[in-house]
């Protein structure tokens, strides 16, 4: 078995004893001071933290390309990984305990980006956004759990901005709400910079956005999630902010800018209790855990925790198992997915 290509730096505090694990070189003096500062902050807040599950997956040889996306099926304890590369399987399937199940060798996926599991019937389905420029690109596709293509949204191989027929230009991610409605961020560097809401039968309910820096404008909308109090959260990557919208009307609710001076948000995923948001920051190799207000005004952005990854890991998109709380991070640089499990800090006081 080959060694894991990259692991993270985890701040661990148990019964007042702290330790740091770094398998990609030693931090500089300034970095070490920042890590100590972060650790002290965690001890004061006593908030939820995460530690690396080094046993997941059981064998890392199955990662053969760049891991761009990951999606969890908590009901069946399955994990789906979308990866890119030449002559490789575009989707890998693992169990929650790290066993490899199978790989999809479908030719209908060119350049997968986002991936999402839906459980609304007897069998789950997997939605994948494809940002490729070939015959299958600029689409969002639904697959069975075994990799059979079920349907395609968008015009395959043709980028565009039309709503009828529906067209995409490098759609970044899709999120399917418990109501069956679809939320799509369209524009991973393409012409479009928009957020769309579709009904269960794929009719446009509303859309927001154009390229810009103002409220409800986007520059590379990269990830989307919906909470239980009717808010849609969007990682507005190019503008280094997260924006929030009312999921019923599409009304703009506000934005978070203050947490992203160092690097943009690449992902938005909520924990099962919706107290926290898990945000990947690719260029600084960090996972930020943000506090989420329960209802009403979204207020200002507050970082309550961080996971500092090793250099060049490049975390891209994440997903959360809403049953176990485990966080899965798709890493472009390390070409793998890592699993982090939550635990409560024990105060030294």
From TrEMBL:
Segment forming the signal sequence: 1-19
Entry keyword annotation includes Transmembrane helix: no
Pfam families: NHL
NHL repeat feature ranges: 209-248
Top-rank taxon, per record: Eukaryota
Keywords: Glycoprotein, Repeat, Signal
InterPro entries attached to this UniProt entry: 6-blade_b-propeller_TolB-like, NHL_repeat
Protein name: NHL repeat-containing protein 3
Gene that produces this protein: NHLRC3
